[in-house]
Every structure is written in structure tokens, then in C-alpha cells.
């Protein structure tokens, strides 16, 4: 059985690795001049680590990443809202996105990877299975589901980067009025960070000025990073299906979500393994993936409403009070509620 994967991001490469593990012949087409990944950090959540383990890549991910066990949620003045000195079993592996992409890339033989190879229509592809892993702006999705809504602006813009450090910090998310920040320390002293702000699309904003009053070391992380990437945050309203004929939509092409739970790339890894486990049964892929990914999509949306989108001082005070009142075990359950996913079994659900 032959599969063609369109898109060589984390989702497309993970699909190629997974399908090859169950015996499919696979090629990957990537429109960019080279296979690569920009961006800053990615937190490999326990659910994503299970997917990577199924692909045979857990050791390599653990070698290149750093397990983070302590952290929590802070207010913009630095007060802890939830402080988790040890989140126990629910370890997050902090990695640079390029390292995760590289682990997947090295697991594939170069002769199946075609760069500078843009796919313009499903019609041009001769395969038993086509994997549309062509990202949030998916051309294949627009062709196959012409009535489905496209990406919409989610009301906030984000900047990301890797500060050279060295720092020794816990993993944290900071919630402030109309903005949020995330800090994901790598094991070598560098720190991946993002800051996001409610704003009109393409607004002319300077993150150094916007986050200057936030707690240490956020202003310094932003100001000391040489290459800062900016993204206006878009998401994709839930689709009625993830499959059409012999095509499976995967990753952001199927369910691009706001980044406030840090699960977007993790969902693409889950999709990839599930697609291989169902071994061409796309109705089952749709049944297994659509409810799960759309639940995480909604959870991310709610995290945004209770986080970055809150601006009223009363609502902020209530939210912060509620966070501080939570017993740590309840807070851990809430923050990791999507991390308990297990690889589905062949034939079962
Ligand atoms: C600010 C921000 C922070 C984030 N933080 C996290 C995080 O901490 N953890 C997490 O899990 N997720 C995070 N995400 C989400 C994550 O980045 C995405 O969910 C993930 O990268 C999606 O991977 P993908 O392979 O589906 O799509 P993409 O990475 O977009 O890859 C699509 C690929 O397809 C190629 N392509 C497109 N069209 C064609 C075509 N017609 N022919 C051939 N090739 C084509 C593109 O060049 C690209 O390489 C974040 C996102 C944002 C915006």
C-alpha cells in the first residue's frame, strides 16, 4: 500500500514514520526549499511522548530534550497562582522545535523526501492514501471540503524566541491583563519563550515595550533574544470530517488550535500514530481523532478565555483567587487533563 504525505512539518513527518512502521510505502512532498522547522520551543506532553514512543523515538527525544518537573502559573507581577514544585509522573519534555523535527527527519530515508515539491491538487496524486499535512492554510482541505470555514484570526498576536541565557528556571505560564507569557527552559541554559497579547491582526506592536512591566525574567528574555518570530494567532473552526475519499487531514490542516494549552503539535503526533494503527480505515481515523482533537481545540479556546482574553480587573481578581484556592492535586489534574491519551489498539477503540 502506498501513501503520499503532503507537508513535511512535524505532523507530516510523524505520519510518514508511523505509516512506514506498519509497512506502508511512503513519500513526502514539501513545498519549501528544504525540510526544516522554525520556531522556538515545544513541550512534549506525556500524550505526545506515548505517540513518539510508539514510533520508536522516545529514547532520541529524551536524549535531546529535558524533562521538566517543576513549574506552575504566575500572575504578571510574579505571584504564584499555582505552584507545582513537582508534577510527578506528568513530566513535560522541553525541546527546541527544530530538534523534534530533526528526530522525525532522521527516522526517514532521504530518498522518500521531496523538497521544493508543492502539491496543488489531490488529483495529481496516485496513491492508496493521501495524508494532507499541509498546515493551517491547507490547500488540500480547501479543495476537498470547499464549504468548510477556513482559518480565522483568534484575536491575539504572539512572539516567540530562544533566549541564549544561561538560565535555570522552572517551566511557567504567566497570565496578565490581556496577555500571557510562557517559559520553557532547555537543559543547556537556553530558554524558549513566547509572549502573546490581545490585539488587532497585524497591529504594529513592540513586545519589549509591551512586556517591560512583567515579572523577571520575562522582559530580559524578550529583550535579549536576537531572532524573535511573530505570528498572528489563527485557528480553524471545527470541521465536519477529517477525511474525504482516500484523503486524511492531519495536524493543523485538520484542527489548528490556539496555543494556550501547548497541544497543537502534540495532537499532530497523536493523529499520525492513530492513522497508522487504523491501517487505512479512514472512517475509524475520523471517529478516533475528530472528537479528541476538537475537545482539545475547545479546551484551548477556554484556556484563552480564562487567560489571555481576561482584561476586566474584577474578572482577573476572581480568576486569580480561584487559581490560588485550588488544591495542587486538582490544579495538576486540570492542567494535564488532555495528557492521559493512550495509543489506540488495532481493532479496538
Ligand atoms: C505561537 C505558537 C505557539 C505554539 N506552541 C506550541 C507548543 O508549545 N506545543 C505544541 O504542541 N504546539 C504548539 N503550537 C502549535 C504547533 O506549532 C502546530 O500545531 C504544529 O506545528 C502543526 O504541525 P503541522 O505539521 O500540522 O503543520 P505545519 O508545521 O504548518 O507544517 C505544514 C507543512 O506543509 C508544507 N506545505 C504547505 N502546503 C503545501 C503544499 N501545497 N505542498 C507541499 N507542502 C506544503 C509547509 O511548508 C509546512 O512545512 C504553537 C503554535 C503557535 C502559533
Automatic annotation (TrEMBL):
Keyword annotations of the record: Monooxygenase, Oxidoreductase
The keyword Oxidoreductase is annotated on this UniProt entry: yes
Matches recorded under SUPFAM superfamilies: FAD/NAD(P)-binding domain (SSF51905)
GO molecular function: FAD binding; monooxygenase activity
Classification via Pfam families: FAD_binding_3
Domain FAD-binding, first and last residues per copy: 2-75, 242-276
Name of the protein in question: FAD-binding domain-containing protein
Lineage of the organism: Bacteria, Bacillati, Actinomycetota, Actinomycetes, Pseudonocardiales
